[in-house]
Amino acid sequence: MRPSSRRSRLGLALLAPVLLALSACAGSSSTGASASGATSGAASSSADAVSPTAAFPVTVTGANGPLTLKAAPEQIVVMGPSLTETLFALGAGAQVEAVDDNSNHPAEAPTTKLSAFQPNAEAVAAYKPDLVVVTNDANGLVASLTKLAIPALVLPAPKNLDEAYEQMRTLGAATGHADDAEKVVMTTKDRIAKAVASVPASAKGKKVYHELDQTFYSVTSATFIGSLYTQFGLTNIADAATGAAEAGGYPQLSAEYIVTAAPDLIVLADTKCCQQDAATVAKRPGFAAVPAVKNGAVLAADDDIASRWGPRIADFAESVATHLQKAA
């Protein structure tokens, strides 16, 4: 497993393989509205407030099972940057009371000292939440919150885009913003589809290397970010790396392996943490001969956007499309 500082930088997207094996569960049952992968019928007439006509109670389903909410939550604590981004994007920002210390987007998110990696139930409870949404059920957080009669919804890192969309819908239903969530899903899907369509057919099959840090940790197609490259028809060089599956889809490659694989596109998700860019990559031994370097197809991505599964994944897809045009 990579060091905790690296996991923190990636905003909970890259937890231990046992966590990555979990996904937001689809399907639910309810005596009122029902949602998890399907809209609940709840509606929101404003991007900033829950509609008074929103349908509650509603049952949503996370990795910790079904959860029934009798009314729209008004004091949500969020433990996970991707979840924070999604809640604000679908218009539930006014209902968010506190977010964890890694949730840095949007700027108006009420960031606190709460740790999503080592959560403390008492610290969370101090915000008097009527809903806690978490990516990682660490330290027995959910069990502790249950004892305090605080509802919790666990939505771990998705394995692909479809699971990410289901999480958006689930969060929308849980907050009274089902219609807004569906609009966010459709907009995100449409932008990604247009980005994929904008790439020349000659780019299909091109090889991609996604860099998490300068020690060459990468992602395979079995990960959320890796699934986006699959949308573009790319060949991920990390897929064939020794021990990729055992590493939970996040193997550590070597410089020699990368140079030999000769990727046509290099995506740097370590520009903020580790000050990597096209110039630093070109200076690495042997990398000057790599097609991506020679053709200027090195994408210096925003670390956060390239590692989270909120709606900004569409921004990342558009950046990938632009650089694939150089590689084609």
Shape: elongated
Number of strands: 11
Mean model confidence by pLDDT: 86
Percent helix: 25-40%
Derived from helix and strand composition plus strand pairing, the structural class reads: alpha/beta
Radius of gyration, in Å, reads 20 Å
> How far apart, in Å, are the first and last alpha carbons?
35 Å
CATH architecture of the largest domain: 3-Layer(aba) Sandwich
Q: Helical stretch count?
A: 13
Q: Which series of helices and strands comes N to C?
A: HHEEEEHEHEHEHHEHEHEHHHEH
Task: Describe the fold and architecture.
With 328 residues, the chain is of the alpha/beta class. The protein folds into two domains: 4-189, Nitrogenase molybdenum iron protein domain (Rossmann fold, 3-Layer(aba) Sandwich); 199-327, Rossmann fold. The chain is 33% helix and 12% strand. It has 13 helices and eleven strands. It has a four-stranded parallel β-sheet, sandwiched between helices. Helix 6 runs antiparallel to helix 7 (178-197) and helix 7 (178-197) runs parallel beside helix 13 (313-327). The longest helix has 20 residues, at 178-197. The chain starts with a helix and ends with a helix. The model is unreliable at 1-50 (pLDDT under 50).
